[in-house]
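Input structure tokens:
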């Protein structure tokens, strides 16, 4: 069987003007991941990334460690099917209806870096409304359409892959959640319960034979744990 390694991007710049940039910790996480995989002797046959900068930068920093170890690495193929869902659009579209029961939500969401726990609670509430399909808006990509976008990316990988190949996909937590939903059949609400536990640069492994895909491992971040540096274990 072949393996698809779903890799969440390194820590982005939460609370900054531009979230889609790796923080110094995010760059270090990606380098540690790449060095760990190179040390294991993993040879990648294909590498994919969404077109977000944090995803591509994670891929570049990790694969540079393969080159440094003399293993070589495949070129990064960009497929926007592996982009994260538009969290800002979800907030903008669904927040007005939430304000009647959460009047402080606008202030909290605008100042998320200073109110992390409350931000997460409210964001989780909005995401669950989104995945339910009961609050769809005309100009907002639905959860169903997002899942189909991700399904298309997975199907393209499988169509190009040979058995026993190792494939890396540098992506985001929401995309990994959609793939968990697709591969295991876990309800979307339960999948998002797992989403909040996905560590930056964690490894999630799918095994495949032809079009048959199964989940082999979830959220492995031993490469960070081995360093005994808690600051490297982040979730956003």
């Amino acid at each position: 069987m072949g393996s698809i390694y779903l890799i969440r991007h390194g820590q982005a710049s939460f609370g900054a003007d531009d979230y889609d940039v790796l923080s110094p910790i995010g760059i270090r996480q990606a380098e540690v991941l790449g060095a760990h995989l190179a040390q294991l002797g993993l040879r990648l046959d294909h590498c994919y990334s969404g077109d977000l900068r944090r995803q591509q930068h994670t891929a570049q920093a990790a694969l540079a460690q393969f080159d440094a170890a003399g293993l070589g690495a495949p070129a990064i193929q960009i497929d926007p099917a592996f982009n994260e869902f538009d969290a800002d659009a979800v907030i903008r579209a669904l927040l007005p209806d939430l304000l009647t029961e959460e009047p402080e939500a606008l202030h909290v969401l605008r100042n998320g870096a200073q109110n992390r726990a409350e931000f997460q609670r409210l964001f989780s509430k909005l995401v669950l409304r989104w995945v339910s399909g009961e609050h769809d808006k005309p100009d907002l990509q639905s959860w169903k359409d997002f899942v189909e976008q991700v399904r298309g990316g997975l199907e393209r990988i499988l169509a190009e892959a040979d058995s026993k190949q190792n494939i890396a996909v540098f992506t985001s937590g929401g995309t990994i959640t959609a793939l968990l939903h697709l591969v295991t059949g876990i309800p979307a609400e339960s999948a998002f319960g797992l989403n909040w536990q996905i560590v930056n640069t964690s490894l999630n492994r799918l095994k495949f034979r032809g079009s048959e895909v199964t989940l082999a491992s979830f959220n492995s971040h031993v490469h960070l744990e081995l360093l005994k540096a808690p600051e490297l274990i982040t979730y956003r």
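The CA atoms of residues 98 and 125 lie 9 Å apart. The chain has a mean pLDDT of 93.
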